[in-house]
Specification:
Strand 7 and strand 8 form a beta hairpin. The protein is about 35% helix and about 25% strand. It is α+β, with helices and mostly antiparallel strands. The chain has a six-stranded antiparallel beta sheet with strand order 6-2-3-4-5-9. Strands 1-10 form a two-stranded antiparallel sheet. The chain has one domain. It is built from eight helices and ten strands. It holds the Pfam family DUF2459. InterPro entries: CHP02117.
Length: about 220
Amino acid sequence: MKKLARFLGLALIVAVLAVTLGTLVPRPLWATAGDKPTATRHILVLKNPIHTDIAIPVDDSVRQRFHFLIDGGIPTDMPEVRYIVFGWGGRAFYLETPTWSELKAVPVMKALTVDTSVMHVDVAGDISEPHPDVAGFDIGEDRFAALLDFIEASFQQGPNGPIHIENAKYSNFDGFFEANGHFNALVGCNTWTAAALRTAGLRTGWWNPLPVSLGLSMRLYN
């Protein structure tokens, strides 16, 4: 019993140290002169206690690039839509836990081990800033294009393009698609968000498995 307690205590210390260093050590380590272009696009990072999404401002070119979303029942063509919201995550947890009251053991176990991944896409109207759960960042046009490339590459491609998951949604305005990569406790939804933001020319912590650590590192280095 004492050995187990000692092991668990050591594991906790290692985890706290890893998260702390992952937050405080920036990635990339050094800022470059090209990190501050003339800002032309304003993106948002949305968070809840365990998950982060990226909200992309909508214009005709963005709608055209992600035209397949309409075929998946996501109404990106509605005039009220101001943002398309993208998130990557574990298939079981995403699809089987639409609300906290529906939390089940199997999706949690898959999230802590290894699971296949899906993309969740939603739409939004105006999003208020400032807000505790919203962080906005200005990026240049070239970095915005790189971010769109990253997001598009996260969708798994079938013979006819991205693979829509039928009858998987939380509302009439969202949907799910098969994604590339595998989800686990070390490489999860928030590390995907961090990688996307680095593609957009922003700096994050070296490893950000939690929204709070990602948010802190973003405030520190951008």
